[in-house]
Amino acid sequence: RAAARQVARVLGTRHQEMQVDLNVAAELPGVVRHLDEPCADPAAVPAHLVARAAASEVKVLLSGTGGDEVFGGYRRYQLASMLRGLAWMPRAAAARVATWLGDRAQHRGSRTGEQLVWLRKLLEARSRHSFADAYFSMFEPAPPGRWKGVLRESVSHDELVVRLCGEMERELGRLPSSDEDFAIATDHLLYLPDDLLLKEDRTTMGASVEGRVPYLDAALVQFAAGLPRATRFDGHGGKTVLREIARRHLPPEVAER
Fold this sequence. Notes:
Elements: H1 2-11, H2 24-35, H3 44-54, E1 60-62, H4 67-71, H5 79-85, H6 91-102, H7 111-127, H8 131-137, H9 144-148, H10 157-172, H11 179-205, E2 210-212, H12 218-225, E3 233-234, E4 237-238, H13 240-249, H14 252-255
Parallel strand pairs: 1-2
Antiparallel strand pairs: 3-4
């Protein structure tokens, strides 16, 4: 919130903060009803609460959804290069360490916790036998042994990877030739429409407001797709081109967040 206040001061925009109480047990039935189909993204609950709070002031919300996918904001887009650096580590050893980390309570409430969660996911990815399998592991809600234990029916992990790759191949005509392009294509074809946009559309409309996503304007997406890969991420992080633009208008500490 402090960064948002700073942006508002610099740009001279109206700034209003609202705080809402989060009672997941009370909110979940209504959110599930609005979603109207299975969507396992826990962010659906706060997304709906934000939309409901804003509904008292506005009827249209602008969202940053799509900025990461279009301009390379996710750390997982560097997974291919990280895995190449981990090629010396046996897959079995990576799996053991990932399981050891996964058995310990972890959360993203601190910088250290965030780094441990990422390390566990990176090692889990190293234990997989293909890049597609490794990249899909980034989306698993918990360590495999933990989340599989709560499913009513067993799911064939290998079959799931084959089916998802088959969907992408049918959509594109062929699978992307590089691991980096595979990662970005996965998010555009699967993660955005089947998770983020579904969640955002249903949770905002459930609060009687309309969510719009300017980063996914067709012309902007097409323009970004033609940019060199270096404009997406470099050694310092993602969204390189957006950060460069932000530096022209915002304080450095905000642009580098």
